[in-house]
Amino acid sequence: MSKDKSLSSAPRASRRGFLTAAGGLAATALASQARAGAGNPANQPPNVPEWTRTLGEGVAVRPYGKPSKFEKDVIRRDVEWLTASRESSVSFTPLHELEGIITPNGLCFERHHGGVAEVDPADHRLMIHGLVERPLLLSLDELKRYPRVNRIHFMECAANSGMEWRGAQLNGCQFTHGMIHCVQYTGVSLRTLLEETGVKPSGKWLLVEGADSASMDRSLPIEKALDDCIIAYKMNGEALYPEQGYPMRLVVPGWQGNLWVKWLRRIEVGDQPWHTREETSKYTDLLPNGKARRFTWSMDAKSVITSPSPQAPIKHGKGFTIVSGLAWSGNGKVKRVDVSLDGGRNWWPARIDGPVLDKALTRFYYEFDWNGEPLLLQSRVQDETGYVQPSKAELRKVRGYNSIYHNNGIQTWHVQANGEVENVEVA
Amino acid sequence: MSRSPKLIIAVALATFAGSVALAGGPQEKIAAKTEAKTEAKTEANAPQRFNIGRAPTVKEIRGWDIDVRPDGQGLPIGKGSVAQGEKLFMDNCASCHGEFGEGAGRWPVLAGGKGSLTSDNPVKTVGSYWPYASTLFDYVRHAMPFGSPQSLKVDEYYALVAYVLYLNDVITDQNFELTDKNLATIRMPNEGGFIMDDRATSEKAFWQKDPCMKNCIAPVKITGRATAVDVTPEDKDGKPRGVE
Questions:
Q1: In the prediction, which pLDDT does A92 show?
Q2: B102 assigned to some structural domain
Q3: DSSP string of B29-68?
Q4: Residue B44: which of A226, A277, A313 has the nearest Cβ?
């Protein structure tokens, strides 16, 4: 490959490199301004813009705030051909527009099997029964009287990146990786409620079930239920949004999103798994030999560069460039992230910034002086268990092409000389 | 809340034992809690009681407890035949799933696909993939018909399940009557097609001490492009979605 030489020698941004880049930026400022569109010169220096010369809206004109009108494209999107109806479908988080590790509530991806249930909290009940000493029926108000915990966790659909098993298909980070979000949950430890009801010694499994039109039910092993699960009623400080299971949902840290039952209405304790539809016909991973793995609950370590990416091209031309991305692991904390500019031949350590939390999104950066030549951008995470995110080739060698679920292979973005970015496969 | 010396001691003890919270219940309960917590920290049945909420009645549980297990636990008393199921299927299901379970448009295919699981296009149906007949009953009774779930009678659900099993040649006799007594005895063709999650052993190579940093692979070339597949949705202005 002709560009290989320049790519493999691409340095991590040094202070000197940064200064050079900054100088270069000033010199090309006019050119990039022209590229970005003229805007309205009347609002630009030396003129005093209209929002400085007039009064703005008063308080509480927007009793519940929302983003600036200039951010109207930062929205969840769906892929219509994926599913037969909107009620049983998915929308994707616009990862390419977001920073830090927390997903705003209104942008968290949705996956419903029977539409969004609009549950009146006054009528909602959580029932816990089965192999317990004292069956329990709780209202939302009663649940809130139990001791509270606050935890930040990512939630990823097991089918995230599932459309990419056979090759690069969707041209956008939102679509390839957007079935994930990360919020702070407030709720009650499931362990607390199981202790309140008293699980009988024979109680080894839980059936968790939602109150929506699909009444989705899943089996959860007691070990996980007693470990770190939460029955959450708040996300990022406010009540769960209806599409996220208002008034209460199950939080199963590090495990596939399908287990995080929304509109949670019932927990039954039993001595065996139920083998429900969502853990047999779905969410089982078909291998090349025709056998399928079942109960593949945990989400392996994974990372992706969110910008630049196909929906977030480089608009400034060559010079100092920020690569921003997310890494996570369902098995613990992120230990390190590396970035490649040449499709995985050579790697450079990324800089992690912000909190590094157990089973939560972790933000990383790689800053460098882009010489304007094409790049094959990749990121690779290693978690605290030592697991290293595999390449897609390595993953397919074990799992074949029909798995649908658990595609945590390394993503490649092809950055072209003009700054446009496309989703590609390399070999 | 009363503050007798005894209670304060109990509270101190409970706190010392690592008790998470105190709801101010009677002192003997707190004392009992302290003991249990100390001796059985990991037991789910350690009686740490808050006494918030109430017990559901038998009738309340019966109204919601509709799940079914492979061994038949949870099956309601009832019966339904293949012939009855065929009529119900045409009225309630065929518009999405097709008259023979072949699926309309992108709605789920229910029948066929046998022998396809190792092919490039596996067709996962009740007959080719689902391991247990109970799953079909559990799912259909929970979620179907799509848009009006839990609207049919128990006998009608038995009949529908019988018909879907018939479409898959799991049941071959048109006069067969599916009941709470015989459903758990039905064996599905792909029951043995599943293994437990074995990633920790079969993918052991993914755990490494130090990931490779230099000259890890030969120089690579682009072998596939999403733009060539061209299935990414566009915004109304014709631009790829989200590109400003």
A1: 98
A2: yes
A3: HHHHHHHHHHH-TT-TT-------SBPPPHHHHHHH----
A4: A226
Question: Are the beta carbons of A347 and B214 separated by less than 8 Å?
Answer: yes
Say whether residue B59 is in contact with chain A using an 8 A CB cutoff: no
Q: Tell me whether residues B206 and A394 touch, CB distance under 8 A.
A: yes
Q: What's residue B12's pLDDT?
A: 36
Q: B32 in a domain, yes or no?
A: no
Which carries the bigger pLDDT value, residue A38 or residue B55? B55
Residues 193-222 of B with CB under 8 A from A: 193-199, 202-203, 205-209, 211-222
Closest Cβ–Cβ partner in A174, A203, A207 for B44: A203
Residue percentage of chain A with pLDDT more than 90: 91
| Number of domains chain B is built from | 1
Query: What chain B residue is nearest to A420 in terms of C-alpha separation?
Result: B243
CA distance A79 to chain B (A): 6
What are the helix (H) ranges across B93-153? 94-97, 133-143
Q: If you measure CA to CA, which chain B residue comes closest to A403?
A: B122
Q: How far is A44 from chain B (nearest CA, A)?
A: 21
Provide the whole-model pTM: 0.88
* pLDDT for residue B230: 87
What pLDDT is stored for residue B239 in this prediction? Answer: 57
Q: Is there a domain that residue B17 lies in?
A: no
Q: Does A89 touch chain B (CB under 8 A)?
A: no
Give one DSSP letter per residue of B150-176, joined into a string: T-S-HHHHHHHHHHHHHHTTSS--TT-
Judged by a CB distance cut-off of 8 A, whether residue B236 touches chain A is no
Q: Does residue B75 lie within any of the structural domains?
A: yes
Name A131's Cβ contacts closer than 8 Å, sequence gap at least 6.
Answer: A199, A200, A202, A203, A269, A270, A271
Report the distance separating Cα A299 and Cα A254, nearest Å: 6
Find, among A176, A162, A158, A79, the residue nearest to A424 by Cα: A176
- Chain B 97-126, CB below 8 Å of chain A: which residues? 105-107, 117-118, 120, 122, 124, 126
CA distance B117 to B124: 7
CATH of the domain at B127: 1.10.760.10
CB contact under 8 A, B52 and A142: yes
Which residues constitute the domain of residue B154?
58-193
Say whether B220 and A280 touch across the interface (CB within 8 A): no
Give the C-alpha separation, A331 to A299, whole Å. 7
pLDDT for B235: 74
Tell me: the pLDDT tens digits for A362-373? 999 999 999 999
Q: Is the pLDDT of residue A13 over 50?
A: no
Q: Which of B8, B18, B24, B26 is nearest to B46 (CA)?
A: B18
* Chain CA centroid to CA B184, Å: 18
Query: A236-291 pLDDT, tens per residue?
Result: 999 999 999 999 999 999 999 999 999 999 999 999 999 999 999 999 999 999 99
Containing A227, the helix (H) or strand (E) segment is: helix A222-227
Instruction: Note which residues in 167-186 of chain A have CB less than 8 A from chain B.
Output: 167-172, 174-175
Question: What are the φ/ψ torsions at residue A359 (nearest 5 degrees)?
Answer: 55, 45
Dist CA A15 CA A19 (whole Å): 6
